[in-house]
Design brief:
The chain is built from three helices and seven strands. It has 146 residues and is of the alpha+beta class. It has one domain: STM4215-like (2-Layer Sandwich), CATH 3.30.2000.30.
């Protein structure tokens, strides 16, 4: 499981987020005509930081951008607050699937930005959009086979 998929699964399991977006959490591509509010996650970078350390052991520091969209500013603010509450300063735990576990070491908000609005793809409606960038330090573990 990728770190982006693990983060989306984690957010979907958090009641404060899922109550607002239901299952509208997407990896990279937003489907057309999807209901709002919704969240799209994108991996911006994922360097192996352990290569510069003598005893690193597979540490990565991924920059992940979460893009929240809503039909109005009030709903957008509620989604942003819920995501921030779950993500910022996350103490770290094991999230992920059976094949690759993601041991999250820390998550911190990199860029809060403002709450702008932008035209929808069809130019018809206004969609309120906010982007949050997070730095996620994690270690991937691949299970051993006997």
């Amino acid at each position: 499981m990728s770190v982006v998929a693990a983060i989306l699964e984690y957010l979907g399991d958090q009641e404060g987020v899922s109550d607002l977006v239901d299952d509208r959490l997407f990896d990279t591509d937003l489907p057309q005509r999807v209901a709002r509010p919704n969240i799209v996650a994108q991996l911006i970078s994922d360097p192996d930081i352990a290569q510069h350390m003598t005893a690193g052991g597979g540490l990565h520091r991924a920059r992940i951008q979460l893009v929240m969209r809503a039909s109005n500013g009030r709903d957008l603010q509620r989604v942003c607050d819920a995501v921030y509450a779950e993500m910022h300063g996350h103490p770290g735990d094991t999230i992920g699937g059976d094949d690759v576990e993601t041991h999250v070491r820390s998550i911190r908000l990199e860029d809060a930005g403002k709450l702008p609005s932008e035209a929808d793809a069809g130019g018809q409606a206004t969609v309120h959009v906010h982007r949050q960038d997070y730095m996620v330090t994690y270690r991937r573990t691949v299970p051993t086979f006997s």
